[in-house]
């Protein structure tokens, strides 16, 4: 827990404190006020391995909790506090702001309020925070364009990049062309690009992310190990891979991923890929980054040198390298000052 860490793949809307979920769900009538303790989280926490679609059903309760400035500020503040307690000194929070506009907020207001709350929490915790705006699969490209435009306008609020998340079905050649143009516009405007790819898709999706979207990082990339040629290219290009092993464990059936020891993270690391560890959705999977390191290291038989490489890759992949480097330097100074 004292190890300074960076977390690059962390969904704000999937990382609420359980106590906050219980309180807000009752306040909004999503569960009865007299419901038994844990009733709301029972609809969020993944407890069986039935596939990705079932695991993501928890967002049906979480997203309604995040439709006001007050609630957005609260969960952002609490998450940054939890990250600081977890030894995470640099984090990038990702979310799709259009999914927080059901009660009348604009996309700009959502990004602005989360940015303000993150900046205030930084002052109190010294954990440095940046934001990523998610474009979504399963929607018309015109639905995603306002998210990109707002992200560019909100660079001054801490937005450093854009992501592509959500359903993978229906990505026709025209759809890919439209989003390739949007990601090119994002880069020319000063934003970085990360893409969910290879989580529930074959390696060809990673190829599309690299060649068409020109991704700086790849989220999950679990299928990459199945394509040695593409893996060698990823290693050569020094693309950072945002691996989320325990998330993948819970979103895969036992037939797809028998145990955490079977996750490809160790093979990717051994091949020379710049792999870092992340929690993905703390509310869904009940994890934090310190325990992710411990559990994955034990399951994969990783030694201290490999754990250090995972941590270093997280900082190397930061979309705001100056802030990440400063956060790491400060944390290292504090560790040295704490004695042997």
Number of helices: 15
Structural class: alpha/beta
- Estimate the global geometry from the Cα principal axes: globular
Instruction: Give the strand line-up of the largest sheet.
Output: 1-2-3-4-5-6-7-8
Could you describe the 3D structure shown?
This protein has helices at 18-27, 52-55, 59-62, 69-85, 107-125, 141-153, 173-188, 203-211, 228-237, 245-251, 265-270, 282-285, 289-300, 304-316, 321-337; strands at residues 5-11, 88-95, 128-136, 159-165, 192-197, 217-220, 240-243, 274-277. The protein is α/β, with parallel strands linked by helices and 340 residues long. Helix 6 (141-153) runs parallel beside helix 7 (173-188). The model has no long low-confidence stretch (mean pLDDT 96).
Fold topology:
Blueprint: E1 5-11, H1 18-27, H2 52-55, H3 59-62, H4 69-85, E2 88-95, H5 107-125, E3 128-136, H6 141-153, E4 159-165, H7 173-188, E5 192-197, H8 203-211, E6 217-220, H9 228-237, E7 240-243, H10 245-251, H11 265-270, E8 274-277, H12 282-285, H13 289-300, H14 304-316, H15 321-337
Parallel strand pairs: 1-2, 2-3, 3-4, 4-5, 5-6, 6-7, 7-8
Helix pairs in contact: 4-5, 6-7
What's this, in brief?
With 340 residues, this protein is of the alpha/beta class.
Note the main attributes of this structure:
340 residues; 8-stranded parallel beta sheet; alpha/beta
